[in-house]
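Course assignment 3, question 2. Fill in each field.
Student: A.L.
Task: Predict the tertiary structure for the chain below.
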Amino acid sequence: MTGTPHGNDPEDEALARAAVDALIGQLALAPKPGLPDPRDLTARATRRDHSALRWSARALLPGLTAMAATARRTGEPGARLRADLGAIGRSTEHTVALTGGGHRGALWTLGLLVAAAALRPGAGPADTTALAGQLAAHPDRRAPRRPSRGSTVSARYGAAGAKGEARAGFPHVRRALTALVEARAQGATEPQARLNALLTVMSTLQDTELLYTAGPMGLRHVQAGARGVLEAGGTVTEPGAAALSALDTDLQARGWGPRGSAPLLTGTLFLDAIGARGTARPAPCTGCHRGAGKCATGPRAPDARGARGTARPAPVPPHSELSP
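Answer field:
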């Protein structure tokens, strides 16, 4: 295996870059109801400065590269690799905190998916998510024994939370990937397809962040709002776009953010980017340049379908989600 001057295989860095690009693409998407996006540069409703989030996202690259390299060297989704990923995750979270913080959920989701993709290059999305689930099932025995807010809420309400989602093989990522592919096939623009994927997650996810801020009634309210957009035809139709705008206005007014859904959309975009080949390809253009003459996410790939039919239907806490 040929490595880079720093000892990493080029494929490891390619996977990590695809993951960071997916996160930046998720951040660039708008309008995301209740979530940071380019309209919110002053953190007016989400309490997050969007420019700072885009900056700190790039700090994940070294850690994700190390996760891919470690998975490739280890070769099996066992307890040893899980512990190593947890240690890298804690170090990466510290680095990200120095650049402004954020992305805790994305680090958990992308770390597992990047490691799984490195373990089985060329595997399809279903196999990759299943492998990530095997990794997540191992406890990280080196992690600090402090309950996180997510784990506390999960225990209180019986919600699966980020750990449960991962251990189940990221079912919401698989559903979102199906929604993404189907929307493109129906003629949706890339932002419309990605918003449909996000709404698919929001419509059923037991989001522990929403449970914490809004309680069970608030969670059901947001789920119903997301389903309403999809039942109106999704973002590609006028009724669906109107329903999305109403949901966005409603969540902004209430100060509710479905923050558990954003990392899962990021994971979806990552799997879409690496496709069924196990290697990164340029992310489709989202129209984010708005006439600037150059797209920040690269050119749109011809007939970008990602899985090609293989898809199946606040302050940073003191320890990483890669440290359950």
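Instructor remarks: Residues 83 and 141 are 7 Å apart (CA to CA). Residues 1-6, 43-47, 276-284, 286-321 have pLDDT under 50 and may be disordered.
Grade: pending
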